[in-house]
Structures are given as structure tokens and as C-alpha cells.
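[job 0417] fold request received: Alkaline phosphatase
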Amino acid sequence: MTLLTKNLKLLFITAIVLVAFGFQAQASEKNDYQGPAPKYIFYFIGDGMGLSQANATEAYLGAIAKSNGIQKLEFSKFPNTGFYTTYATNRFITGSAAAGTALSTGHKTSINTIGMDASKQIAYKNIAEMAKDKGYKVGIVSSVSIDHATPATFYAHEPSRNQYYKISLDLSKSGFNYFAGGGFKHPEGDGKIDDNNTMANFGMGDATQIKKKQTNSMDIAISKGYRIVNSLKGFHALKKGDDKIIASAPHLAGGKALPYAIDQDSLTDISLGDFTQKGIELLDNPNGFFMMVEGGKIDWACHANDAATVVKEVLQFDKAVSKAIAFYNQHPNETLILVAGDHETGGMALGFSGTHYDSEFALLQYQNISYEDFTKIMNTYRIDKRGHYNFEDALALAKKYFGLGDASKGLELSKFDLQQMKDAFNQSMKKKQNKKNKDQYYLLYGSYDPFTTTLCHLLSQKAGIGWTSFSHTATPIPVRAMGVGANLYTGFFDNTDIPKKLMKLIENK
Ligand SMILES: [Zn+2]
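[job 0417] inference complete; emitting C-alpha cells
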């Protein structure tokens, strides 16, 4: 045997071994659950929530309580924890549509696809639809718009997450009992039919004509028996027995989402926890229920590298989980609570090169506004000043909203900090930003307001938090589980295993 054929033979054997092992790794996630189906299933998904987002919040709680370590979130106290990979079929770093499809259907798919295979031909049945077939009542709750990627993967089957109108039509087709949280992005009709082709390309007339021809998807929902509730009074009036409800927050922020927790007014806004509690009230019935609750804005705040807003979002998400825990305590032998995430966002790290080994998480408490609302303040300032802007004003705003520059809070600014702020402020004051050095500009500010982003970065860094990206990352994600069948959720598996285990759990219902 020549050396070459010997090597080829070796390669062939290695390939077989690798394939066998790969197959075994897949098959080893076997599931022989024989017990009763959980009657009540809570499936929480923190969008963009990896281990860092949860643990940073716990470190923050520990720091403001002046204790040395962390204070656990409620979901971190669950008895079972597993970790899973999140990659999509065509990209290692996933997106919310592909990750949501994996978490809802047990199938991997391509980026931007909602509840269908990667080639966008086959619609996959999801766990919420299966639960409905088994007689459970179904609720879908999110802090972002209810037609957004993650919630959509639990009731829609569309080639693109951007087909908001078609997704909202799928919503009323689902027949599910309770939709709640944010609003709808395009109930009056999509101008675009998908990422690349306008409706005109389909010979359907231009976008305006199409909009005129399309019936508002909310009217269609009403014709199918749904009731739309979008006032505080209407929401509080909802009571046990009310069915087929679409409840939206009375005051919506950007993207038809709930306002960030850090910006919410407890008197006039409805929190994610309130929507979850109402869901329990409306869905509870002798056949049980399945409720998916998404904390959708953890992701958005991470995209913007805004650590203080992330911490407040995670806290509000954990409060929603607490509502499920209170219910669990009344029905411990019939309830399952899962708390998962779809991917990590921002490459958030509990450590920053500039602070070496130091952490000062309590500093995040001095930020009292989200990057979103602060950007609005900056935009108003720029328009008001008409070119006569002043860095002293910027310093005052940084101090008022982020505590930055307030020595009594331990937030002194170094020369380097001030230089970064000045550069960013000058960029923010330009009507059209100077992107001469596009790569450098993007690394500094992403696609956000330069001054706002710089303040978010400076406060994060002083707290000892680093960010590596304005996008998602591929780090494995934890799932925490408590209740009936929770022991299936221990180990290291794939995101598709989470609904597969759920499907097995409800098989014998
Ligand atoms: Zn996501």
C-alpha cells in the first residue's frame, strides 16, 4: 500500500468515525419521558439574553444591596439548567427568526425565515399549534410588536420576518386565545412583500395601491371573533372567561413595542408582568394552557450596548417569570416553567480592559433613561440649536441622565473620556454624519446616535462591562426549568431540542 492510499484510507476511516460520532451526539439527546403531561406550560424567551445579561443583572442587584457577590434572579433559582447551541442553517450567528423557529418547531432554518424550512417551501408545525390541538388554551405575549420575529414563530409561517402584514393575518388564522404586549407594525398592509421584491414585482400594483386594496388585518381579526383591547381601562376590565383577545399596550414606543422598563410609568403603562398575569387569568381552564412570553427588548438594548437599560429589562422579564412562579406554587404538580433565550446580543462581557479586574455594577443605577429616549433628547436639541450647539450643554445632559461627570457618584470623567464625548457630540450635531472613515465610525457608534452610544459605552465601561458587537453572538444559551418534566432540560444540547422535549412531554395528553 502506498503512503498516499494509506493516508486516504485513514482519512476515510476518520470521516466515518466523525459522522458516527456526530450522529451519536444528535441521537444521544434521547427522550424517554413517560410521566404525565404538564397541564400548564410557561415558555419564557429572553430575546438576546445569554448568561452575561442575566448575570450582569444579578451582579447589579448584589452591588446595590452592597453585598459582595450576586443576588439571584428568580429564574436562576430553578432546579434545572441546560445549555444549547443556536446556529442557523446558513449562518453560525443566528437571528431571531431562525432561532425562534428552532425554539418553536424543533427545526433549524435559514436567517429571517418564520416557521418554515430553509428553502421556504415547507411550513413546520410549532409547539403552540400542537398544544392547541391537544386542547390547551394558547397565549402569546411579547414586549415588542406581536408580529415581531420571535412571537411570530409561534403562530406564523412566512418566508420572511419582514412580511409583517401576512404575519398579522396568520395571527388571526391561529385561533389562539390571547395575544398581548406590543402592537402591530403593518396592520394596514406591507409596502414590501419581502426583502428584495416589492409587490409591484408580483404584478400587484405599487405599494400605495396594494395598501388600498388590503383590508386592515385587525378588521380581519375582528371578523374572526377577536376583540382588540388597547386602553388601560379596557385591559384591566378583562376577566376570566374573556376569549380571543388581542391586548396591546396603551402607549407604544418605537417599533410598536412597550416602552423600555427604564422609561415606563407604573401608573399609565402595562408591564410584561401585567400582561403575563392577565394571561394566566384568561387562559386558566380545566384543559390547561400554553403561554409563550418574550422579553423582546433585552435584545434591542444590547444591540445599542446600553447596559443599564438591559439590566432593567432583565429585571422586568424576571418579574414576569415571578407571576408564573406564583401560579406554579398553587399548582406545583401540574406546571412546567421554562426560561430560555434565543441568542446572545452585543457580546456583553463582565469585564473591560480599561478597568482591569475591577467591577462597579452599582454605577448603572445613575442612568435614568434608555438610549432610545436619550436619542430623542439629542435630536430635539440639535434641531432647536440650529448649529449653535455647545459642548457644555452636552456635559449637563450626560450628568443629568447618565450621572457621568458627577464625582459624588464616583463618575468622574478623564481627559480621554471627555475627548471621546466631544468627538461623538460633534458627530451627533451634524445633520448628516461625517462617515469619511466608515469602518472606524461603525466600530465606535454602530448605527446609533454617536453621543448617546458614547455615553452608554462610558457608563458600561466604568461599571466594568465590555461590549464586542452591535449584533448577535453565537455563545451557547442557558435554559432554566422548573416543574413537570424539568429534569429533561439538563445537559448540553441544541436549541431545536427544547421544543422537541416539550412535544414529547405533551405527547400523552
Ligand atoms: Zn433575537
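[job 0417] notes: The radius of gyration is 24 Å. Residues 353-463 form one domain.
[job 0417] exit 0
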